[in-house]
Specification:
The chain is mainly alpha-helical. It is 78% helix and 0% strand. It has a single domain, classed as Chorismate Mutase Domain, subunit A (Up-down Bundle). Helix 1 runs antiparallel to helix 2 and helix 2 runs antiparallel to helix 3.
Amino acid sequence: MTVQLDSPGIETAEQAVSTEVELVSADVELAHLFDEIQELDAQILEVIKRRCELSQLIGVAAKATGHSREAQNHEMQVLDRFTELGKDGNTLALTLLRLGRTRLAS
């Protein structure tokens, strides 16, 4: 029995190496993408912490000066800004607002 190397389903050594190189390249790209997401997550976390600090300061100042209604209007604007993300955007906006009212542990 003879087998043809160019038969369907049988890879040549060159094709096998090419496939291996593509897989390694895909793994490297995937690792890079995960690294980038990890960096973005770190940046997002820092921004959220700062946002919470500012929100808490605003809450204290608004109560002290009687501008609570103005602060509520700004909260409604936050909800509006996140509408482009749909239902999840609304959830995210509400979460950010809730976090701003909560003291974060340092």
